[in-house]
Design a protein that fits this description.
Number of helices of chain A: 24
Structural class of chain B: mainly alpha
Shape of chain B: globular
Structural class of chain A: mainly alpha
Number of domains of chain A: 2
Radius of gyration of chain B: 23 Å
Oligomer: heterodimer
Strand order of the largest sheet of chain A: 1-2
Radius of gyration of chain A: 25 Å
Order of helices and strands of chain A: HHHHEEHHHHHHEEHHHHHHHHHHHHHH
Chain lengths: 589, 514
């Protein structure tokens, strides 16, 4: 690629944010149009990347980048193919420092240890079959959020700017190929998200935001330590000190598992876990909090129930996907052996999330909390697919990440519509809305069915593949997970039926008809308005398209899934796994 | 004829090279005298011109230091091996001078608002800066002590500069008493070290200790001396458990003095800490590295945990300063080049973010009283969007978020700690950083949250000033002071995105231990 399309895509929202700052705050219409334009152009660019990526046959691309890019270690041995790579040096420390330090260069050998290794990191971008999909999803959801964003929202300009900054952060996480750059975007994205959380939403949003930030940053900081661990351990064993992801992935083939770590406690020394396993756990903790997996999930219900609809569209839709993305991109590739060691742990957490999320969703009465716990359950499926550690499971997980983003965004839009009309989200106060709001009920039905994994809708495809993969890993996991599918029908239909069916029920004491009239007068309508239709229809259409004709999504996701499985299976099986998956991909329609 | 009274002895002039080596000190010290004299003859009520003159003097010293850095004539050891004008000293000089310059720009408006405008303020400030510059390059125990006292004594006065404010008086008295104690510790340590080695020169001490250590001999008297020196210096950098003066003094002192004290003093004291421990006392590294690491960990834990419970901004920043001292101490405890570099990097980062944060407090201070209560920050996001945004930036930077210089400060420190196998230091650093988010983000929340939204732990706090009252009384941000905040903010972001700007400077740094 001759021009840096990834950088352009990445920084377009930033430029957009700068432009929006220049618009006077009072001109809300212009601000909203500008926001939509920026997010739409970003979506266009990600689609260009997606199409360009898909246009190159994956196998050919693997060969191409293997020869064109002269870096020996990174491309020849790296099992993951990254395209559209851009690399600019960011911080390059010199080589040895010792000669500059007379103080430390004394003749005495005891004080003249080896010079510290140079610290190098670069601005390195690239995409693979995992991140292209998520980039497109992210851009789509930001556009949808921009559409849903009301022109009457308080401090609209600030909201728009923060939203675009979050988009930069999210796209940066998805495209960065350097551990430091990744961490940089990973953490920096939290800043606009924090301000969005404390500025708009329910009265208890301050507490929710603080909880979210402390949870995620605590996890991330351990990941930062682990990043240094990867850097120094890989460097010590291979002589290559780098934060560059492709190089590190390639170098892991040479990093042999060292001995277990020895601890001494009260004079007794014992050994537990080797360094690679510690590093795996540190990365997994950061990602598990972000997903969230069950013991680390308690920030989520608060955060989801206090946010505004446009915020939740992209926050629930894409930010939570970043955790699953990290598990695939970093844990599987950098710690292949530990991934196998901890497979039961991660699968156990996934099952716990599926079942706990589902049961908790059944117990909630707040609509946003129901959706939040449903989201935990669904993301449990994604993690289940990832740690099935086979091509089917991972392929399903990639598809399901996209699906979940679409479904959860649509669910939050529907719930947001109900909340905006009746100023309540309590399930027991509402009922029979299908009669006054038929269009909403229809759209909501499709979204609900997609959420519970109905065949011919998108989630079915992903869940089917995930269960297939889990079954290959062990039938027990698949059986437990399918309980989650059953529970999904229950909690999704409970919400749908409670809201739309039965006798018409509204909060408050006045007569129902008076209330409906009052709402209609206030908003000029009761049912879904044109803006909301514009936001919902593309999502619903995608649900149908992916559900009816999933072949392209499966086929293109499969190549990357195979690559990641190959990366995770290094030292156990390499080439055959890739070959068989390619054959499988060809045999699909 | 008087001059030739002793004909056998040629007249001794100080060699020009020696004077060149301490040129920044000469400018600042001489400048203090000039300001002192001008203060006598100037017309009343023209304090702004004094500030201007002080600023010019500091700028001249800064320019000289930059010139010496660029000329890079190698480490110059002057005055018979008692002072080194190496890049290590110059780097610390730069940070101190830039901070002092920022404080001088902040001062006139603040002093006028609080009714403290006096000429002595600038003289004391310059004298203290001169002490810091002496410390940065001191290569002799006597010079170190000279620098410490030259730094401290003007600060004792400055801390009590608000004469009609009881808290200021109380803080100054505490600072004086405890500071005197710390100087005593330091002096006793120096005496023991001199008694054992027979030298006051760091060069000679290092050589002596190196012979000692190579022979496998650990001298208990030297250990006692090292311990006393560490206690004295830990007091000056306000590391726990030697921090007891910090919260009261930071809260009581006028905000501009706190700004100066919290940043510049720490930089100079750490400069001497780093030079003394990672260079001169390096042969005894095996003995002192664990105690210093323990002090670092205690500081990180104590500072961060206690900061959570604060309802005063200045006390919060004081405890945050204790915690930050703990982080910087990681680099001292490592006692290796990468640790030293990381500490220096963090000091530079700290100068930007902490000066910025205190500068905001300075701007918000009203007549007769500093902006100190949390409740005074309420609604700042609406009243002063620019200041609130910048304050948020400094809080995020102190918390170590990426995009800010604080991130790379912690980055280099933790990286150095892990590389040297000091995992415990890194892990405690990480854990306490997570705790620190709580109070840094609460400041932001306070500024932006709607009035009804009271953060956790603040329910008991009753604001004596109604929000409307504050809004009326709040001063409009004044030009030059806002410029300082804006520059600190720009530095925080630019260095947060391009860490190489400082890191490459530190690459070529050299430490002369003699």
């Amino acid at each position: 690629m001759s021009w840096p399309i990834l950088s352009v895509t990445l920084f377009l929202p930033l430029a957009g944010a700068a432009a929006i700052v220049a618009i006077p705050a009072s001109r809300t219409r212009a601000i909203r149009l500008a926001l939509m334009a920026v997010t739409a152009i970003t979506l266009g660019l990600t689609c260009v990347v997606l199409v360009a990526y898909l246009a190159v046959p994956p196998a050919a691309a693997a060969k191409l980048s293997g020869t064109a890019n002269g870096q020996s270690l990174s491309t020849i041995h790296s099992p993951i193919t990254f395209q559209f790579q851009e690399q600019v040096n960011w911080l390059q420390s010199g080589t040895s420092l010792s000669h500059l330090h007379p103080a430390f260069n004394e003749g005495n050998s005891a004080f003249n240890q080896a010079a510290p290794p140079p610290i190098n990191f670069s601005y390195h971008l690239g995409v693979d079959g995992l991140s292209v999909w998520l980039m497109a999803l992210a851009a789509l959801l930001f556009l949808v959020a921009a559409v849903v964003l009301s022109q009457r929202e308080a401090r609209l300009r600030t909201f728009a700017v923060l939203m675009l900054l979050s988009e930069v952060g999210v796209l940066g996480v998805l495209t960065s190929l350097d551990l430091i750059l990744f961490y940089f975007f990973w953490e920096a994205a939290l800043i606009p998200l924090y301000f969005l959380m404390i500025g708009w939403g329910d009265p208890n949003r301050g507490r929710a935001a603080l909880k979210f930030i402390i949870y995620t940053v605590a996890g991330s900081l351990f990941m930062l330590l682990a990043i240094f661990g990867v850097y120094f351990i890989t460097g010590a064993q291979t002589g290559v000190y780098t934060f560059d992801l492709p190089t590190l992935i390639a170098a892991q083939s040479f990093v042999h598992a060292t001995q277990a770590t020895t601890f001494s406690l009260f004079g007794h020394s014992f050994t537990w876990l080797n360094p690679q396993e510690w590093l795996f756990l540190a990365f997994a903790l950061a990602f598990a909090i972000k997903v969230p997996l069950v013991p680390f999930h308690s920030w989520l219900p608060d955060a989801y129930s206090s946010g505004t609809t446009p915020f939740l569209v992209f926050f629930a839709g894409i930010v939570s996907k970043l955790g699953a993305f990290g598990l695939i991109r970093y844990n599987l590739t950098l710690f292949p052996e530990a991934s196998h060691t901890f497979q039961p742990l991660m699968l156990g957490l996934a099952i716990a999330s599926i079942l706990y999320g589902a049961l908790a969703a059944l117990a909630q009465t707040d609509l946003k909390r129901i959706v939040g716990f449903a989201s935990i359950s669904h993301l449990g499926f994604v993690v289940l697919g990832i740690f099935a550690l086979n091509v089917d499971g991972l392929n399903g997980a990639i598809i399901q990440m996209v699906n979940h983003g679409i479904v959860i965004a649509a669910l939050f839009i529907c719930v947001g519509i109900v909340e905006s009309r009746f100023a309540t989200r309590t399930l027991s106060q509402l009922g029979g809305l299908a009669r006054p709001m038929p269009v909403l009920a229809g759209l909501f039905l499709v979204v609900t069915l997609a959420g519970l994994g109905m065949p011919l809708l998108n989630s079915f495809v992903g869940e089917f593949l995930i269960l297939l993969g889990a079954f290959q890993a062990s039938p027990v996991w698949a059986v437990l997970a399918s309980l989650g599918v059953i529970l999904a029908c229950w909690y999704m239909l409970r919400m749908y039926q409670g809201l739309t069916q039965g006798e018409l029920r509204l909060p408050g004491t006045e007569a129902v008809s008076e209330q409906l009239q009052a709402v209609s007068r206030r908003l000029g309508r009761l049912d879904v308005g044109p803006v909301e239709v514009v936001a919902l229809v593309p999502l619903v259409a995608l649900m149908l398209v992916i559900g009816v004709y999933p072949a392209p999504v499966i086929r293109y996701g499969r190549f990357s899934a195979a690559q990641y499985v190959q990366a995770a299976n290094r030292q156990t099986a390499t080439e055959p796994a890739l070959a068989s998956s390619r054959a499988a991909a060809r045999s699909l329609p | 004829m008087i001059g030739a009274a002793a004909p056998g002895y040629p007249l001794h002039f100080v060699p020009a090279g020696d004077l060149l080596g301490i040129l920044p000190i000469l400018i600042v010290g001489g400048g203090a005298v000039v300001v002192l004299l001008w203060d006598l003859i100037r017309p009343r009520g023209q304090e702004v011109w004094l500030a201007g003159l002080t600023g010019l003097i500091l700028a001249a010293a800064l320019g000289t230091a930059i010139g010496q850095w660029v000329a890079n004539s190698g480490p110059i050891v002057v005055f018979n091996g008692t002072y080194a004008n190496d890049r290590f000293a110059l780097f610390a000089d730069l940070v101190v001078l830039i901070t002092a310059l920022a404080v001088v720009v902040l001062s006139p408006g603040y002093l006028r608002r609080r009714g403290l405008a006096e000429g002595e303020y600038y003289i004391l400030l310059l004298a203290s800066v001169a002490g810091m510059l002496v410390l940065d390059g001191a290569l002799n125990l006597i010079v170190i002590f000279l620098g410490i006292e030259l730094l401290s004594i003007p600060l004792y006065v400055l801390a009590g500069f608000a004469r009609d404010d009881q808290r200021s008086q109380e803080g100054a008295m505490k600072y004086l008493l405890l500071g005197g104690f710390a100087s005593g510790f330091l002096l006793y340590g120096m005496a023991l070290l001199y008694g054992e080695t027979g030298h006051t020169s760091l060069t000679a001490i290092h050589a002596f200790l190196l012979r000692d250590a190579t022979a496998g001999h650990v001298d208990p008297m030297v250990l006692a001396a090292v311990g006393l020196l560490a206690v004295g210096l830990a007091f000056k950098v306000s590391a726990a458990p030697f921090h007891w003066w910090t919260p009261d003094v930071y809260q009581g002192s006028p905000a501009v003095v706190t700004t100066f004290m919290s940043v510049a003093t720490k930089v100079a004291a750490f400069a001497v800490f780093l030079r003394l421990f990672s260079a001169t006392l390096a042969p005894y590294r095996a003995e002192w590295t664990v105690p210093i690491a323990v002090v670092a960990i205690i500081s990180m834990i104590y500072g961060n945990v206690v900061a959570v419970a604060q309802t005063s901004i200045k006390r919060l920043l004081a405890y945050s300063g204790i915690a930050q001292a703990g982080y910087i101490m990681i680099g001292v405890a490592l006692g290796r080049p990468d640790g030293t570099q990381a500490s220096l990097y963090y000091l530079a980062a700290y100068a930007f973010m902490n000066t910025g944060a205190f500068a905001v407090v300075t701007i918000l201070s009203r007549r007769g009283e500093d902006c100190d209560r949390y409740s005074e920050l309420a609604g700042l996001g609406r009243r002063e969007p620019v200041l609130a945004g910048l304050m948020s930036l400094f809080m995020l930077s102190l918390a170590g978020f990426p995009l800010t210089v604080g991130f790379f400060g912690k980055f280099f420190l933790f990286s150095a700690a892990i590389h040297d196998g000091q995992l415990a230091l890194a892990i405690w650093g990480i854990l306490t950083s997570a705790v620190s988010l709580f109070y840094y983000l609460r400041v932001i929340l306070k500024m932006y949250a709607p009035a009804a939204d009271v953060g956790p732990g603040e329910e008991f706090e009753v604001a004596s000033v109604s929000p409307e009252g504050t809004a009326v009384a709040a001063p409009r941000a004044v030009g030059p002071a806002v410029l300082v905040v804006a520059l600190a903010g720009a530095g925080t972001i630019v260095l947060g995105i391009f860490p190489a700007l400082i890191y490459t400077l530190l690459q070529g740094i050299s430490v002369v231990h003699g």
